[in-house]
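Hi,

I'm pasting everything inline rather than attaching a file, because the server keeps stripping attachments. The sequence lines come first, and each chain or strand is labelled.
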Amino acid sequence: MTNLPISADLIAEMNAAQTEALEEDYAALGRKLARGGIDIDAIKTRVAGFSVAVPSWGAGRGGTRFAKFPIPGEPTNIHEKLEDCAVIQQLSRVTPRVSPHFPWDNVSDYAGLREEAAHLGLGFDAVNSNTFQDQPGQTHTYANGSLAAQDEATRLQAVEHNIECIEIGRQLGSTDLTVWVGDGTNFPGQQDLGRSLDRYLEAAALVYAALPDDWRMLLEHKMFEPAFYSTVISDWGSSILAAQELGPKAKCLVDLGHHAPNVNIEQIVARLHRFGKLGGFHFNDSKYGDDDLDSGSINPHQLFLVFNELVEAELDPRDGFNPSYMIDQSHNVTDPIESMLSSAEAITQCFAKAQLVDREALHAAQEANDTMIAFQTLRRAYNVDVGPIIAKARAEAGGAIDALETYRLSQFRRRKAQERKPVGLGAGIV
Ligand SMILES: [Mn+2]
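And the predicted assembly:
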């Protein structure tokens, strides 16, 4: 039995008013694609099979390290976060899994939480550990690092926390542990750059050893912040070296905002795949750094080029290619549900556009060194408005043709503002 937060009648009523226009647009696009030898229904089927997880923390307003500005009706605990994630899934039909974060999402009964999520039409994705901040009553501080800390007891405490996350994840039905550590330095000379990586590897190996057979450990790198001089796992190079050292269940996770400006992320994707180490993605967008802006809001072309590499990777799978996709954004000025609906749409659009690339023409142009045709082959796919394909796939799965408008008409947030406790103020970086 499911207990979905948006009225099915409202979705049906809204869709009924928009179906005729959608069918017209879909038919017109179908004729256009057919001229290029593409079957629109086959693309729609692929889109229907696509999904991306949402982070539990993405259901709340984030912020910058200066401030956050909560909105009335924001979720205050994992139960309310699940309800908001269920809204996103119910309307978009591409976000069936939630990625929880511990200890933020700690509860006393995880089997019960799994059941609660199932009633909302949701499952769980990768579990995320948190050793970048101290919790009340914690024995050893992470002020000087966690898995890479000089102090052995601190390192072991961080290892224990990660193992506890695996145990929780088993109860939730997860099979991935995502590990991001903020370990690093703010001053030259503060730590030995080589020895800090040694300590990280030694501690990470203890976590790795606790992974069940069918689990993966996803290593998330990030160039800077909170450490602004050096970070232990700072880039994809450090990440792949660590993953190779740890073993086959360790993979690299690429967060689109965690690189130096202008870095060619699609090339990183191709490199990681070449060595069987591409484990997952955190989708967001970036203008200057780890801005955690909405996916596709700044550079949708880059997002398309990333998906283009993922399609190439699928054609040449290595080492069980099965990347875990997740949205990882921080919503400072929007309703998080609206932002995640918009981002899920942007991500699915780029996925769909990458499916439209004429691979044969692209590979032939590459082999013939015909640069302009190779470029135009990508450009042609990128320029197609795939909106009707995504809307039709969504509607056929029970979602809303216009997810955002349906969400606003549902008055979900206004209803929750009356039911939920207000969120406290404070700095809110996540
Ligand atoms: Mn991330």
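The chain is about 50% helix and 10% strand.

If the labels don't parse on your end, tell me and I'll reformat.
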